[in-house]
Amino acid sequence: MSTTIQKNTQSIKHQPAGLFEETRYEKIHNVIFSDANSASIAVAKEIAELIRTKQAEGKNCVLGLATGSSPVKVYQELIRMHKEEGLSFKNVITFNLDEYFPMQKEDIQSYWHFMHKNLFNHVDILPENINIPSGTLGKEEVRDYCYAYEEKIKQAGGIDFQLLGIGRTGHIGFNEPGSNVNSITRMVTLNKVTKTDAAHAFGGYKNVPSKAITMGVGTVLAARRVVLLAWGASKASIIAKTIEGEVSSQIPATFLQEHKNTTFVIDETAASELIRNKTPWLVGDYDFNNKNEEEIARAVVWLCERLDKTILGLREEDYLENGLGVLLEDTSAYDLNIRIFNRIQRAITGWPGGKPNADDSYRPEREHPHKKRVIIFSPHPDDDVISMGGTFDRLVEQGHEVHIAYQTSGSTAVADTEALRFVEVAHDMLLGKTDVSHLEKVMQILKNKKQGDKETLDVWKLKGNIRRHECYGATRYYNVPDENLHFLNLPFYETQAVEKQPIGEADIKIIEDLIREVKPHQIYAAGDLADPHGTHKVCLDGIFAALERLKNEDYMKDCWVWLYRGAWHEWDVHEMEMIVPMTRDQVLRKRQAIFFHQSQKDGAMYMGSDMREFWQRAEERNSDTANRLHKLGLAKYQAMEAFRRHFF
Ligand code: F6R
Fold this sequence. Notes:
Layout: E1 30-33, H1 36-56, E2 61-65, H2 72-85, E3 92-96, E4 98-101, H3 111-118, E5 130-131, H4 142-155, E6 161-164, E7 186-189, H5 192-202, E8 211-214, H6 217-221, E9 226-230, H7 236-244, E10 262-267, H8 275-278, H9 293-307, H10 316-321, H11 333-347, E11 373-378, H12 383-397, E12 401-406, H13 416-430, H14 437-448, H15 457-477, E13 485-487, H16 505-518, E14 522-526, H17 535-550, E15 560-564, E16 578-582, H18 584-595, H19 614-631, E17 639-646
Parallel strand pairs: 1-10, 2-3, 2-6, 3-5, 6-9, 9-10, 11-12, 11-14, 12-13, 14-15
Antiparallel strand pairs: 4-8, 7-8, 15-17, 16-17
The chain binds fructose -6-phosphate.
Fructose -6-phosphate binds at residues 66-70, 97-98, 165-167, 171-174.
GO molecular function: glucosamine-6-phosphate deaminase activity
Protein name: Glucosamine-6-phosphate deaminase
GO biological process, one term: carbohydrate metabolic process
């Protein structure tokens, strides 16, 4: 990541545009933090200071508040300040941005519920000072209600501080593309992408309400201070468009470019598509001398793709004319090209566990020991085959002892209809032979379940079992002995609901014990570092915590950790440190292995906005990698899986 990432201790106070050269292409003041946690603490600090200043002046403090995953840690910090530092909310009046429509307050998906659970229930705010748009109005009441909401904000003196998240459509509040800059609180129709993003919380797309009541863009712009939060890779693209693009109602957040006191507080990954981070050499003098070879490779790959040339085809003038002359200060284009070409070429190997009796000086993996013990950590029961099925297949075929550790049961993602099918089969098999009343009870539960009902333990276990046996199907197909499968059922996930617990001691201990037992030479883990909320990141945090505890054990000196990426994205070329090619047959075998995960086929519950099935995504991603490398001038392969080494 670029050196422009600023220190965590920095203030998020608004700075005049263009104060620093690195912000040359940027039209909104932004502060980049290494992680969402420290960023949230800084934001909470600004809010707390405002509340205290207003208190000292004997005035109310009017806050505009957001829901969703982005502000949760800010609220946690405010609660901590209330409990430990005596921060009082007695002078605070809040206006929430939005609420789904229709929506009952008590529903766990309601923003009313969210706000009380995540903030209001834990601080001393007066209930009469809390304002959240209502989801229970009659349609004919909505218009007057919205005017009244606006009026109430004005009566309170206007919003002092507005907290925002941003949707992938560029919405703020629920002001979707097309929203007017002067819009006020009103009823709106949700965009498909927004509904897809909410599908997880609602247990499927079809359950997400189509409408919402939201404050308008104009309402937000009237706030005296605006802070927008964004974390993780899924926000990177919209953040770059909003900060660097033209103002357009197609991306309503760009209207914030016209607000004089707005700051975007973002983490490194959400900032990764900004020009200053993605192609810093375009911004000003970029000092490659302090950079490692990987950073130089990034620039060379960028140059190739910009000019549609191969690495070995780049000429001196290509570097000079595209802001990369600095790379040729102490070498020639010819030598640099060869150096970077070799670097990528050497990462390609058909021997992910190391090639026996071969010189390994330039290979990604060690030759010794020839037979390695390997643990593949799979956050969900199908990530092993979706994300690294080809490599998995090769490791087994090349004689390594491959263990697979399924970190979570994956129960959340099995549809009730799918579960019902299994109970009905069991029921019909046993009918007349034994007492089936229990199965009938489960069938009734599944048939009568309502949206948002917590899962019964029986049904939760049944769903986990369905996924467990799908795993056996896939791993037997790859010739892995059943005893090498480890179903960890990490407790953080076992909530019988969509919402999970944070990772804890019990989870880490389970991972630690397995590593201690297997003593692996290789660990593969899902390296979705970019996803701050999802299960993959939590599972990775658990592995990192376990590695930290084990790192001084003798056998760990021999253990290399490789990170693969999930079904959503791939490492960038310069980041790839081991690239495993697949033949056409291996691609088909991988497809077959993924097919065993039947409960995740045909419109599985948590597909995200990408409607392709997992096997299609995996195949396209792997063939894209192969094509991308071929365009850079490397040999043409059918498909490739990529890994990055993690040092601990
Ligand atoms: C929430 C809201 C939305 C969210 C946005 C991002 O009150 O108005 O604009 O801020 O959809 O949601 P998360 O933070 O969940 O990514």
